[in-house]
Amino acid sequence: MSAFIFNELNFDNHEQVVFVSEAKSGLKGIIAIHNTTLGPAMGGCRMWDYASEALAVNDVLRLSRGMTYKNAVAGLPIGGGKSVIIGNPKTDKTPALFEALGEALERLGGRYVTAEDVGTSPQDMAHVATKTRYVAGLGDNGDPSPYTALGCFVGAQAAVKHHLGRDSLEGLTVAVQGLGHVGYDYARRLHAAGAKLVVADIETQALERARHELAATVVDVDAIYDVQADIYAPCALGATLNANTIARLKARIVAGAANNQLATADVGEMLRQKGVLYAPDFVINAGGIIKVCYEYLGKPESDVEAHVREIGDTLAEVFARAGREAVSTSVVADQVAQARFKR
Ligand SMILES: NC(=O)c1ccc[n+]([C@@H]2O[C@H](COP(=O)([O-])OP(=O)(O)OC[C@H]3O[C@@H](n4cnc5c(N)ncnc54)[C@H](O)[C@@H]3O)[C@@H](O)[C@H]2O)c1
Asked: Keywords of this protein's UniProt record, alphabetized (predicted)?
């Protein structure tokens, strides 16, 4: 018999993986709880038209494991988990689908708390909330992106200080890939700090806005890797850093919001060898989950900013240790997380 789940690279000792289905609503979903050492598992619910069930399993395990690392390094009292609903978010959504997910979460008794993610919205989460209290990111004030952007900004400041020996971003050039919810707000902060922006996106509207409001120079989507910049800020897709793009990169720092930026684990070492300082994705982009976690735990929103700003201090420690031990920053970030959740 071939091992399908337990031998998956990302299975990595998941505590629990639950397959949920409901005939009436057509729900087909997977809830993955990677680790609850630090608290209930928290991570968003992704809705995606997966080409196969195996791909859905692989995705939920990868994302759930990643949340354990992100939440641990951010110093949050929560573990890591994630859920996926198999279906097309444009055509297959119904309130009943999310109510059925809520019932499934309720059966787990709070071991996993969900929120919005790619393909789901605060409105969908409101339907989940009719059946369970184990859901966050609700309401008008639920958008975590501004906090993710703030975390990226303080992360970029820490990287510049460590690697370029500068206290200011004034006059530095940042190549921003993706001007969506996080990327645009991050670019706005960079512009306000005196950085020059070179930007790429597949949406022309965002580019025009950046050109007018932020004096940004626009380049083609594929040309962003070749820009003569100090910082490369991936804020669109995952896995943009690979042997090919690293060879083209002129930037000396990578500091962006995208999840899973390294195409493969060895890319962290490739960046180090090239003298590029990489701000590990799950450390620098934790601002959003910090905001969602505070909301869920009923902690005051006024304290969120200070917690998000700690991302800069955490990164400074990661950079210093990586330098001392002559290893990649991604390896150090993994070790910092593991020391917290592996007890
Ligand atoms: N929103 C958050 O709080 C948050 C938190 C942690 C991580 N992230 C990650 O940060 C990234 C951005 O998130 P977001 O919420 O801003 O998403 P978004 O969908 O609002 O923005 C993504 C932007 O990238 C653009 N884009 C798509 N393909 C592109 C390409 N090939 N080249 C250049 N641009 C392209 C899109 O047009 C869009 O403007 C994602 O990888 C996301 O997983 C987001």
From this structure: NAD, Nucleotide-binding, Oxidoreductase
pLDDT-flagged residues of the chain (< 50): 1
Q: How far is the CA of 268 from the centre of ligand 1 (A)?
A: 21
User: What's the predicted TM-score (pTM) here?
Assistant: 0.96
Q: For position 3, what pLDDT does the model report?
A: 62
User: How many whole angstroms separate alpha carbon 154 and alpha carbon 42?
Assistant: 24
**Catalytic annotation present for 82:** yes
Q: What does the pLDDT read at residue 4?
A: 73
Task: Walk across the sheet containing 231-234 and list its strands.
Answer: 217-218, 196-200, 173-177, 231-234, 253-254, 277-278
Q: Tell me what pLDDT residue 159 has.
A: 98
181 assigned to a ligand binding site: yes
The tokens for 111 are 């071991």
Domains defined for the chain, CATH in brackets = 5-68+78-130 (3.40.50.10860), 144-341 (3.40.50.720)
In a 3-state reduction of DSSP, which class is residue 60?
Answer: helix
Tokens at 186, concatenated: 């991050």
Structure confidence at residue 138 (pLDDT): 80
